[in-house]
Amino acid sequence: MSQELAMALVELNRDKAMELVRSRAEKGEDPLGILAECRDGMTIVGERFQAGDYYLAELLLSGEIFKAAIAFLEPYLAKVLPAKPLGKVVLATVRGDIHDLGKNILSVLLKAQGFEVHDLGVDVAPAKIVETVKEVQPGFVGFSALITTSFPAMKETAQMLVEAGLRDKVKLMVGGGVTTPALKDYVGADFQTIDATAGVSYCLQNVEGR
């Protein structure tokens, strides 16, 4: 299978990437397959970033191309997704951090699998997250981080979920380049990853009824 689209994204060639997405979608190719190749490109970008070959600027630029590709694919994806949501997920970059690339990628991938995603954005107050969990009643709550300043707010939010009697009703996930198993334990989360694809797999494995 050609990886031309993935490499256009890796090479930060927005025009080429968007033209490939557009032409393939309009020819009737499976939008989930197109999305998968975009995701492959982002995986390579992430690997280069972790290795020090790419810097934050390249990471953010590739993320913008990815978001543009997904925005174009949305109407095509809507035609192939199940009518009933597979599950509900609340996502947030918690207070103290304004980065959202990883969260946005996870959001798109979850939606592509049929999840209903409530993305609260960045620098979100713990009380706002708890309020949304009460309202939405999701099966999963995900905290995203690219800098460590949000760690205390993650722990605070988790404790507030406990105090509200909500913690046992959700799977709590932490993700992002600076997260570790030690952070998972500190927050009291159920799952930790630096890979959005792994986050999707975790949600799929833990959907009620599966």
Short descriptors:
alpha/beta, 5 strands, 2 domains, Methyltransferase, Methionine Synthase (B12-binding Domains), Chain A, domain 1, 5-stranded parallel beta sheet, Rossmann fold, 210 residues
Describe this structure in words.
This protein is of the alpha/beta class and 210 residues long. It folds into two domains: 4-78, Methyltransferase, Methionine Synthase (B12-binding Domains), Chain A, domain 1 (Orthogonal Bundle); 88-205, Rossmann fold, CATH 3.40.50. It has helices spanning 4-10, 14-26, 31-51, 56-78, 101-112, 126-136, 151-163, 181-187, 196-205; strands spanning 88-93, 116-119, 140-144, 171-175, 191-193. Strand 1, helix 5 and strand 2 form a beta-alpha-beta unit. Helix 2 packs parallel to helix 4. The two termini are 31 Å apart.
Task: Map the helices and strands.
Elements (H helix, E strand, L loop, with lengths): L3 H7 L3 H13 L4 H21 L4 H23 L9 E6 L7 H12 L3 E4 L6 H11 L3 E5 L6 H13 L7 E5 L5 H7 L3 E3 L2 H10 L5
Parallel strand pairs: 1-2, 1-3, 3-4, 4-5
Helix pairs in contact: 1-2, 1-3, 2-4, 3-4, 4-5, 5-9, 6-7
